[in-house]
């Protein structure tokens, strides 16, 4: 059976991701206590099901500790299990809760003898939730939704789900350092030392996908040197990530604005590796400019 587990921080988009999977034909269960996961899988197998998606989070805090063990056991039984951990920067989460006027799930939990007036603040709830879910995050593929709209997240989940199964999916992501390093990055490379096309008024409105910017960067020997260094590093260590049974490896390339140099690098790297690997590319800041966020 193909099993996808959606978990992560409240407010990071788990419900959006689960709806995408439902549309893709998965039998979906929201807020399942982890202790019931194995029984649910067994039941669905008896019913002849092939695809199952489950969302679980800190609302089932008491049974979260055993979830990593259950996931390992399901994989050992031959199931194709993928775990997506959705997260976001604390500031983004606070803004989302404020916009929707929702309360955090942990804000309703009271310790024995605690006065209801002493409930945790929203920031304290988020920090507590991160601690509670740290063990699951370490075995999952993290998706940083800080700068994503619901529409962009839906597209990103579809791309991951509909990509054919492979030993490892290689994700290349461009970003702007001024907006923060992506939380889902496994490897981060800084290309800000390269000459910036932004300072050429003709190139400023363009991106690293446009031919004039490509020509500008390819005319600089240091650009080619750095590209080769990054490519060789990823190529050298990629087998080790595969040996570690990783399902995804996210390589984030950052520059100042996430528009020219990092985009160019991601495009060249994706072009090189897609010959032999399953590759997905993402340009975080270009998606923002396009109005997806």
UniProtKB/TrEMBL annotation:
This chain belongs to the protein called RNase adapter RapZ
Lineage top rank: taxon: Bacteria
Provide the species name: Collimonas rhizosphaerae
Q: Name one Pfam family in it.
A: RapZ-like_N
Keyword annotations from UniProtKB, A to Z: ATP-binding, GTP-binding, Nucleotide-binding
Task: Give the residues the record marks as binding GTP.
Answer: 57-60
Q: Where is the RapZ C-terminal domain?
A: 170-286
Transmembrane residue ranges: none
UniProt cross-references to NCBIfam families, sorted A to Z? PRK05416.1
Q: Which SUPFAM superfamilies match?
A: P-loop containing nucleoside triphosphate hydrolases
Which annotated residues bind ATP? 8-15
Leader peptide range in chain numbering: none
Q: Which residues form the RapZ-like N-terminal domain?
A: 1-162
Q: Which gene encodes it?
A: rapZ
């Amino acid at each position: 059976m193909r099993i996808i587990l959606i978990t992560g921080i409240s407010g990071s988009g788990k419900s959006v991701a689960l709806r995408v999977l439902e549309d893709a034909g998965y039998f979906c269960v929201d807020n399942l206590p982890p202790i019931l996961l194995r029984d649910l899988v067994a039941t669905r197998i008896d019913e002849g099901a092939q695809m199952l998606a489950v969302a679980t989070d800190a609302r089932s805090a008491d049974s979260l500790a055993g979830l990593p063990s259950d996931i390992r056991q399901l994989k050992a039984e031959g199931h194709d299990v993928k775990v997506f951990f959705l997260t976001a920067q604390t500031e983004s989460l606070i803004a989302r809760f404020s916009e929707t006027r929702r309360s955090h799930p942990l804000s309703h939990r009271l310790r024995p003898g605690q006065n209801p007036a002493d409930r945790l603040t929203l920031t304290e709830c988020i920090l507590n939730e991160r601690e509670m879910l740290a063990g699951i995050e370490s075995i999952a593929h993290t998706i940083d939704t800080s700068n994503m709209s619901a529409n962009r997240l839906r597209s990103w989940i579809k791309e991951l789900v509909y990509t054919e199964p492979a030993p490892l999916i290689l994700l290349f992501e461009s970003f702007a350092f001024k907006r923060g390093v992506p939380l889902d990055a496994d490897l981060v490379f800084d290309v800000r030392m390269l000459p910036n096309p932004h300072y050429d008024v003709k190139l400023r409105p363009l991106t690293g996908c446009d031919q004039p910017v490509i020509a500008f960067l390819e005319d600089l020997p240091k650009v080619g040197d750095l590209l080769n260094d990054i490519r060789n590093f990823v190529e050298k260590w990629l087998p080790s990530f595969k040996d570690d049974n990783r399902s995804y490896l996210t390589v984030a390339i950052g520059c100042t604005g996430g528009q020219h140099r990092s985009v160019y690098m991601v495009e060249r790297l994706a072009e090189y590796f897609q010959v032999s690997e399953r590759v997905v590319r993402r340009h975080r800041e270009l998606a923002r400019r396009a109005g997806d966020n």
